[in-house]
Amino acid sequence: MSENNFKINEHSLRTAISKVEPDKIVTRGYNQRDLIEKIRYSDMVFLLLKGRLPSIKEGKLFNHVLVSFFVITEPLLQVHKQQDLLPLQVLR
């Protein structure tokens, strides 16, 4: 593989939430690879919003809240069938 000439300005990659280092992304103090491998999507959203991982009880509740927003109702299914749209396109 050849080297590319793409240079990253180190200062432009820092935020209050994450930090990018060579071969490593840190989110709220946690290695991104560990987060991807070990926690649920809803726990990651909670971490981003609150700055900490949820307790077991908070995690279950927050997961239920997020899932409740993604219920596709019968009227949405009808739009999907009539207009030949992908499910996520219907939600827009």
Q: In terms of topology, how is this protein built?
A:
Layout: E1 18-21, E2 24-27, E3 30-31, H1 32-38, H2 41-50, H3 56-69, H4 74-83, H5 87-91
Antiparallel strand pairs: 1-2, 2-3
Helix pairs in contact: 2-3
Q: Characterize the main sheet.
A: 3 strands, antiparallel
Measured as a percent range, the helix fraction is 40-55%
Give the beta-strand count: 3
What value does the Rg take, in angstroms?
19 Å
Whole-number mean pLDDT: 79
Instruction: Give the terminus-to-terminus CA distance.
Output: 40 Å
Large-scale geometry: flat
Strand fraction band? Answer: 5-15%
Secondary-structure element sequence?
EEEHHHHH
Poorly predicted runs of 5 or more residues: none
Strand order of the largest sheet: 1-2-3
Count, helices? 5
Class derived from helix and strand content: mainly alpha
Please tag this protein with its features.
92 residues, 11% strand, 50% helix, mainly alpha, 3-stranded antiparallel sheet
Describe the structure.
With 92 residues, this protein is mostly helical. A three-stranded antiparallel sheet has the order 1-2-3. A hairpin with a 2-residue loop joins strand 2 and strand 3. Helix 2 packs across helix 3. The termini are far apart. The model has no long low-confidence stretch (mean pLDDT 79).
Quick synopsis:
Helix content is 50%, strand content 11%. The protein has 92 residues and is mostly helical.
